[in-house]
Amino acid sequence: MVMNTKSMNTSYRHNYHLMPSQGWMNDPNGFSLFNQEYHLFYQHYPYATEWGPMHWGHATSKDLIRWNHKAIALKPDQPYDRNGVFSGSGMTVGNEHWLYYTGHTDTHLNQLYDEHYQKKQHATPFPDEPLIRQVQCLAISKDGVNYEKFHGNPVISSEEIPEDIRLEDFRDPKVWSHEQSFYMAVGAKTIGLTGTVLFYTSKNGVNWNYLNRLELGPDYGTVWECPDLFELDGKHVLLFSPQDKVRKGNQFENVHSTMALIGEFDYNTGYFTIETEQELDQGFDFYAPQTTLTAENKRVMIAWMNMWDINYPLHAHDHGWNGSMTLPRELSITDGRMIQKPYHLIENHQRHLVEKQRFFIKEHYRNPAFYGNSQRLDIRLNMQYSSQFSISFFKGKNEKLILTLDKQHHQITLNRKQSQYPIESLVSKNDFIRSMTIDLTKPVQLSVFLDVSSIEIFINQGEHTITSLFFTKEQGNEVTFYSEGETCIEEMKKWEIM
């Protein structure tokens, strides 16, 4: 099976975000530093622009901004992963690069399995199994290019999980080391349909023992995907992506969300003590984040910049590719809250600074110097004498993406309804607005990154973030402003990103 790459439509391809060279992309996998290069793998179906039997796509980078595509690293070609090489993590062990992943088998998907692999690897068809099964597996490389699956896979089988965990929802291993031991966090769902994360430990990275679990009840979703546990600024942080998380006001407005728990992890008992919790991003398109430590010892996170349970315009209009990753984000903790800032090396790709100091906007304001759809826009503003301030991005004659700061209601909202290629939810009708609560009586700082069909907004030096895709038929590039009352723009800077 081969995709026709000659029909690739590049209209909405990004300039400085990682995308697949063709086909489908979702969760970041194996994000790690090996042989002085950053490796980012991803869930990939190379033969169509929608989800299919998962492979691991592979890209490398020196600066986390410019990526080079490599050959597909892992394919579903063994009895224990024949219907999908699902998400996982990567780490350097000695002089080798180890990838941990979930092997997925599903008798209902056997008909979708690429027959090429059956004919090549097996003389007879795979035996039928009575149920969906997910197990944890290992692949090893000495050169960061060619990966060989461990002969003893799976390293954690169905017999090594608690009895109340569903065999079909036991996935996404994140592995790290601490004081001569290996640790693994695996996302799961109980038979009672609540999300949980399971912790395992090992002395050699191959033989694993169950340690403990964290579970918070039905209000925290039905399954926890893509867990990631790490130390940051003297605390432990557990990231995970709960599906069907209960909405609270304007938090967790997506059907599938992302969360951070901040507290303390006891390596001896596997017990996680929670001190604070937060939603990671309050936009439309942010899921399954994964982190790594950079060469300069910064904790950096990348997420899938898309979402489940929506229509996909790139698929519907046959663009030949679908999916992308967020910018890398530097993480820190301030007052019990995780802060996200754009990774500083993005500055090396910024060009042609335009800036304007202290001026007032009342009603409409246009300045072609600030137009563009592949740029960074930094704005420091004060709404002391205004009640509402809005910015329209990707603006054309009939389309625009609107960011509104409403001081009276203490809200920032992003509205992406005005597009001729709307991204519609398959779960909720007219689901085109995301909002967040914030004190707008104080000065506000915005850093906005536009990239052809995406926007990432960092608010008040990364205290909050909003991420969204946006596809416009007109492909407008105007950036315009409107204020009810006078909004003081203390500083506005724009860079093109090349």
What does this structure look like?
The model is unreliable at 111-130 (pLDDT under 50). Helix content is 2%, strand content 52%. The protein has 498 residues and is mostly beta strands. The protein has two helices and 30 strands. It has two domains: 17-336, Tachylectin-2, Chain A, CATH 2.115.10; 346-497, Exo-inulinase, domain 1 (Jelly Rolls). The strands form six sheets. Strands 22, 23, 24, 25, 26, 27, 28, 29 and 30 form a nine-stranded antiparallel beta sheet that branches. The chain has a five-stranded mixed beta sheet with strand order 4-3-2-1-19, with no helix packed on it. It has a four-stranded antiparallel beta sheet with strand order 5-6-7-8, with no helix packed on it. It has helices spanning 115-121, 313-316, and strands spanning 23-34, 37-45, 55-61, 68-69, 85-93, 96-105, 133-141, 148-149, 165-178, 181-190, 195-202, 208-215, 223-232, 235-243, 259-266, 271-279, 287-293, 299-304, 321-322, 329-334, 337-342, 350-366, 374-395, 401-406, 411-415, 433-437, 444-451, 454-459, 464-469, 478-497.
